[in-house]
Amino acid sequence: YMVKKEIPDYQWICSRGMGTSYGINMVEEKDGLYPSVDELIELLVDVTSKNGFLLLNIGPNADGTISKHQSSRLEGIGSWLEVNGEAIFETRPWKTYGRDNLRYTCKGDDLYVIALTHPGMYLFLDDTLINFNKQTEIIWLQTKEKLSWRRSHMGEGIVIKLPLRRNTDPANPLNAAHVFK
User: Do residues 113 and 102 touch, judged by C-beta distance below 8 A?
Assistant: First the structure.
């Protein structure tokens, strides 16, 4: 499958199978041979931040059913999108797709910062990229909490204080990527 390194001027599609093929492959049905929910969510976020769409092929069994290994991944992506979908659906790329473990999308006047890993107690953002002012509000979509922020002591960016995590279960799809609006 193809992934872009930068934001192209055109929309594009990243097409991939759930596994390494576009049909059912009994060898891949052994759990662990498909990408994890986290990996698929990271791919969705990365592709979206670069003006793309993710087309994820599901290979049904001969009787038309979808295996548990595939359906559990789809359900995980769906659970994540229920909470964070506004950062994906009907969004556009921002000035930059991101850097390191951060990706950006935007919709209207809203900017979405998507952390592909949990940032810990603080999230640091480069304020040369984002126009922060006293009225800037930051909301963590997962919890709907308004977060406090301040300029860093060194003047190198913005520091956002995150609340303690209530759910640290790595199997929870909401822990795959964290969205800040």
Answer: yes
pLDDT under 50 in the chain at which residues? Answer: none
Q: How far is CA 130 from the centre of its chain?
A: 19
> Which residue bears the tokens 């009225």?
135
β-pair type (102-107, 145-147): unpaired
Closest CA to 126 of 147, 145, 109, 104: 104
Reported as a single tens digit per residue, the pLDDT across 142-168 is: 989 999 999 887 767 899 988 876 666
Please give the radius of gyration of the chain, using alpha carbons only, rounded to the nearest integer.
Answer: 18
Element (H, E) at 80: helix 68-84
**pLDDT value at residue 127:** 74
Give the pLDDT score at 167.
65
Q: What is the pTM of this model?
A: 0.91
DSSP string, 82-147: HHHGGGTTT-EEEEEEEETTEEEEEETTEEEEEESS--TTEEEE-TTTS---TT--EEETTTTEEE
